[in-house]
């Protein structure tokens, strides 16, 4: 259903007024972190070069010097470059952004995809795992070379951090990498939890009981929904997904092409909604492919391009007007797995954009749940650093894929098959207790702010040994906390399919139920016994 031009004009006007009303001071307050120059600065409080013969400062005839890192023979463990300890007195308790220009010359392929050109911050803090957030500086083929381009990324430095080490250089690669125009900025101060949790009932957007279901292929048909009904599923996460993830045709499309595709996806949802209602299945509308798509670094263009940020609001104005009052819809997941740049763009970050969008949606639709995922990637740790929105009717969502070495083995580049659950994975014993610990930020967040949690995605690739036990343990922890959840995924990519067996080379459904499917069906059976009121708000 297309919005008439006059309605679309009103939507754009309303969005512009709401945008103007947001405090611009937040963007203006993103202050740079002072760093000493790397020109000859080595020693206490300054830069440390791993090898002065291979790491040098070069003057190029301008006021800007660059750091040149040359590695003639790569090894899988060697890291060549420069590092500096960021000032904790300034950065602790903040989300920071790092921006640096990089030039590459004949850089060889590293053994692990996360190595190669390094622009990274290693953060340590008590009672949490270390983080190594970094920018993607490698090329599409190897060896690769490119002229100056800007890399950006974000990381969080907790208030109790013991160190935050910025690293530039090469690891596990031969070749040359040059760095210039380094900037570190405070992007946002971390939220301060209230001394005592808010009181009152927790908003879930539905009646008693839990919603338990799956993500689904955007090409799902009526007969697929009949299968879900037989399994007693009572929730699906409908992906507004355009031809791939994380990259899609939206990466190159203009607004007219995007809107045409969006309308076709929503038209198919409209065709399926009567079947969902007949099956007693509620729907989450999940914007998996936002307007503008993502850049090569997977950063969403709604955070780097004013045109696309504005169109994000127009899209949600359309969706909210279309489905307000529709009891078949449980909620709106505003964007799937947001990723932001580390540099300053002059645009709203995700927290402010989410709050602005949620307020606008709430003006249109006072009933449906508005689902918010933290950045980056809807990760569980990210939730601990995401302040609750000042909007009623918010449900907070995270995705559970920890440890990635197990859940994504043989899926992501550099993650070899082999890890077994339960067992030692990445040097840590993983079992139900460790899963509970991994989900503790979400558990604490729900208690601290008196809010509801929805696990929008969780899974383990089907050939991972012990995937059924992993899925069972994750479900147990979610059930302990009374959360809603959706498994990833039903009749989408065969690697995640619970209907396909454990043999990686066999991609067709198994004639007998798999162990993973039996685990899910046992959990879905609770939907049949529960008194969950699927349609309509609490």
The fourth-level CATH homologous superfamily of the largest domain is Glycosidases
Helix fraction, binned, reads 25-40%
Most strands sheet: 8 strands, parallel, barrel
Terminal CA distance reads: 29 Å
Radius of gyration: 24 Å
**What is the number of independent domains?**
2
Strand count: 20
Q: What order do the strands of the largest sheet run in, or round the barrel if closed?
A: 11-12-13-14-15-16-19-20
Q: Which structural class do you get from the secondary structure elements?
A: alpha/beta
Uncertain parts: 1-29
CATH first level of the largest domain: Alpha Beta
Can you give a write-up of this model?
There is one protein chain. This protein is α/β, with parallel strands linked by helices and 538 residues long. The chain folds into two domains: 30-189, Galactose-binding domain-like (Jelly Rolls); 203-529, TIM Barrel. It has 13 helices and 20 strands. The strands form four sheets. An eight-stranded parallel beta barrel has the order 11-12-13-14-15-16-19-20, surrounded by five helices. A five-stranded antiparallel β-sheet has the order 1-4-9-6-7, with no helix packed on it. Helix 12 links the parallel strand 19 (453-458) and strand 20. Helix 6 runs parallel beside helix 7 (350-364) and helix 12 packs parallel to helix 13. It is globular, with a radius of gyration of 24 Å.
């Amino acid at each position: 259903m297309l919005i008439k031009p006059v309605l679309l004009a009103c939507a754009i006007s309303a969005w512009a007024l709401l945008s103007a009303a947001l405090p611009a001071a937040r963007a203006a307050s993103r202050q740079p972190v002072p760093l000493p120059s790397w020109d000859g600065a080595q020693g206490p409080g300054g830069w440390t070069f791993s090898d002065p013969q291979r790491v040098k400062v070069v003057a190029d005839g301008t006021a800007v010097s660059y750091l040149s890192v040359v590695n003639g023979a790569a090894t899988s463990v060697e890291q060549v470059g420069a590092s500096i300890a960021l000032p904790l007195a300034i950065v602790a308790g903040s989300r920071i952004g790092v921006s640096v220009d990089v030039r590459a010359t004949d850089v060889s392929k590293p053994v692990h995809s996360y190595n190669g050109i390094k622009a990274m911050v290693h953060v340590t803090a008590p009672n949490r795992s270390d983080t190594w957030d970094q920018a993607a500086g490698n090329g599409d083929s190897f060896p690769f070379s490119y002229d100056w381009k800007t890399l950006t990324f974000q990381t969080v430095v907790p208030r109790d951090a013991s160190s935050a080490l910025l690293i530039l250089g090469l690891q596990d690669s031969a070749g040359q990498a040059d760095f210039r125009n380094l900037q570190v900025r405070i992007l946002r101060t971390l939220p301060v939890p209230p001394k005592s949790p808010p009181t009152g009932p927790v908003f879930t957007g539905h009646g008693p009981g839990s919603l338990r279901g799956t993500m689904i292929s955007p090409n799902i048909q009526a007969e697929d929904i009949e299968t879900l009904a037989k399994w007693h599923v009572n929730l699906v996460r409908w992906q507004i997904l355009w031809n791939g993830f994380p990259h899609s045709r939206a990466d190159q499309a203009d607004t007219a092409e995007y809107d045409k595709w969006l309308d076709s996806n929503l038209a198919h949802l409209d065709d399926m909604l009567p079947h969902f209602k007949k099956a007693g299945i509620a729907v989450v509308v999940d914007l998996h492919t936002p307007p503008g798509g993502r850049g090569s670094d997977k950063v969403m263009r709604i955070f780097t391009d004013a045109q696309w940020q504005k169109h994000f609001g127009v899209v949600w104005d359309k969706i909210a007007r279309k489905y307000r009052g529709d009891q078949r819809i449980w909620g709106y997941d505003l964007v799937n797995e947001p990723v932001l740049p580390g540099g300053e763009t002059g645009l709203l970050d995700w927290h402010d954009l989410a709050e602005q969008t949620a307020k606008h949606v709430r003006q249109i639709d006072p009933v449906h749940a508005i689902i918010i995922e933290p950045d980056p990637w809807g990760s569980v740790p990210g939730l601990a650093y995401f302040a609750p929105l000042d909007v009623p009717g918010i449900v907070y969502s995270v995705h559970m894929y920890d440890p990635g070495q197990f859940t994504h083995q043989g899926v992501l580049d550099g993650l070899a098959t082999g890890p077994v659950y339960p067992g030692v994975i990445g040097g840590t014993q993983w079992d139900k207790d460790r899963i509970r610990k991994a989900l503790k930020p979400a558990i604490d967040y729900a208690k601290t702010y008196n809010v509801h949690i929805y696990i929008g995605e969780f899974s383990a690739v089907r050939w991972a040994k012990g995937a059924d036990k992993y899925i069972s343990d994750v479900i147990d922890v979610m059930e302990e906390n009374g959360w809603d959840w959706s498994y990833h995924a039903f009749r989408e990519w065969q690697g995640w399919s619970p209907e396909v067996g454990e043999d990686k080379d066999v991609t067709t459904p198994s004639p007998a139920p798999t162990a993973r499917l039996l685990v899910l069906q046992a959990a879905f059976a609770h939907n049949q016994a529960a008194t969950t009121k699927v349609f309509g708000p609490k």
